[in-house]
């Protein structure tokens, strides 16, 4: 790096009024170094535009969401073509209203159809809109237009980050290629551990067949052929009414709270820890994905304490094989029975 001194000087100026931890300082330095490296490569102008726009869009999204980090959020995916008089539109409105009533916020695209229904149901004050600029669609829908919680984006990949990063749950209604793309990418992130565990609810009307047909394809042509594990079925739930959909989300967090990797160990945090019998049970049932040692009940780790990361919660930890994420869902289900 030929500009080390300049980068160090700029980093010092940035952090002078706002001291940073060692980890954050390293991350900021890496960001600056990557900008300089990109400039030194003399890239194509289009490459520069992509990099600049992507970073700018993420920065804007982070800023919009920052004041609401403490509020739980559910992302709604679904078709932009759903008419306002369609039963799915009404079902989406009812679901969004029900989640807002228990103090959850809604994240969805800012377009028409299911996106508009979600924002209309939850209310502008409880909603975020993450819009994608398309040449054949108008701007944001009337329910979120000009709101401070509206983010406009050019790229689908940055929009997906904004739609998924902040959410603790996902509700997916029937839709086209875009909806299926969002659904499959979300399931892939959960399957590979690139997203933290979260409930995914596939919602349709009682007489609808969209997700039933989808599940038949997944079971008959994907799972049966060994393209994914049968355990991956645990990453989603089907629902045909608001109550079941809401229950699938809230029950996921009945006792389980969150997860964090600390070195090779997976730390699962919860409101109520296991008693000795329960601890022995999970050691017996889930030892197959523990690479070394056993499942242990622990206090907050050093990294968690240094970042004040949910230090008062109960937690268990184990050396994880980083493959068996379907089994982690089963473990979370077991953890949630401890609150009974």
UniProtKB/TrEMBL annotation:
Cellular component GO terms held in the UniProt record: cytosol
InterPro entries: LOG_fam, LOG_family_nucleotidases
Pfam hit, one: Lysine_decarbox
Name the record gives this protein: Unannotated protein
Lineage: unclassified sequences, metagenomes, ecological metagenomes
